[in-house]
Amino acid sequence: MGAPLTNSTRRLILAISVLLVVLGNTAGPLLMRFYYVKGGSRIWFITWLQTGGWPIILIPLFVSYFQRRKTDPKAKLFQTQVVAFIAAGLLGTILGVINFLYSLAAQRLPVSTSTLILASNLIFTALSAFVLVKQKFTPYSVNAIMLLTAGAAALAMHASSERPEGQSKRSYAIGFAMMFISAALTGMVFPAVELIYMKTKLALTYSLVMEIQLVMSFAATVFATIGMIVNNDWRVISREAGQFLLGETKYYVVTISISVVFQLYFVGAVGIIFCASAFVNGIITTVLLPITEVLAVIFFHDKFTSEKGMSLALCLWGFISHLYGEYRASKKQNQIIMQQSATNTPNIAPTVELQP
After folding, report:
1. Cβ within 8 Å of residue 201, ≥6 positions away
2. CB neighbours (10 Å) of residue 248?
3. The pLDDT of residue 12
4. What is the DSSP letter of 323?
5. CA atoms 240, 247, 51, 174: torsion sign
6. Tens digits of per-residue pLDDT, 130-175?
7. pTM for the whole structure
8. What are 256-260's contacts with CB under 8 Å, separation 24+?
9. Distance of alpha carbon 198 from alpha carbon 337, whole angstroms
10. Which residue has the higher pLDDT, 235 or 116?
């Protein structure tokens, strides 16, 4: 993982990263809502959990380090440059703010509404990717953006009717606004991470990508830790665990699961950015929106309305459009490579044996 990757290895990392994003983007919101529904109420604690699993990243980093040591005894555990370290720390602090806003909104909104962040995030990701990393869009990717955005709009059509009983319109509106701001910031962060990859002077390896994610997660956790200290969350966790509707043991199972699932999501997201782009990560994130909707219907007995069915169809259509566009681009690129290879191949005249 410390050396340049072959195409097969890159595809393997991309496949694993996609699976991690699927797990995090579907299980994460459901687990968080489950925590609130069953009696949890600590906003800063949930914010902390979303990146508190950062030590998981040390596992691949140590594996990469010991592999590098076999060929280079002077290899360092961390390779991140100072500028990249500072940039990742700043983005990590912004990530902490995003997690806080998301946690605040998730407490006030049902899952079917809160998952709107996944779709609106794509718009901001596309804009930020165009500005920061000069992302090029094909007709197929533009079509995918339009279809996925339409899928989100279909969900928004019934969002106001899903306001939980006993909750004021003002509280619901605040939650919706916090989710929207969180979406905007998230759409800016991931292209900024891709920009760090492009600007680094070192050879971009998967281990270096994990180092940047480690710094980001650690900075976000520090931000959440300060909030927990100010809000005295540390002192009431044990009391909240005792009052959890499913019991103290399951309280810790749920909270630990939230921490692990969200950290796996972030690892998967940076893996997709490393192997593809921030825009592709946004596409995958958005197409998972209706899947989370279906799971919310199964686990929280939300109603599966016609708008949700329409959203599912539009998101799948948009995703297929993007995949087809990538297939066309890859096929065209392969044809160009083959033509260049044929052009550069020297013509060797056949050897003629002269008879005496």
Report:
1. 81
2. 13
3. 87
4. H
5. negative
6. 888 777 777 877 887 788 777 767 766 665 566 666 677 788 778 8
7. 0.79
8. 257/27, 257/31, 258/28, 258/31, 258/32, 258/35, 258/46, 258/49, 258/50, 259/49, 259/50, 259/52, 259/53, 260/53, 260/56
9. 24
10. 235
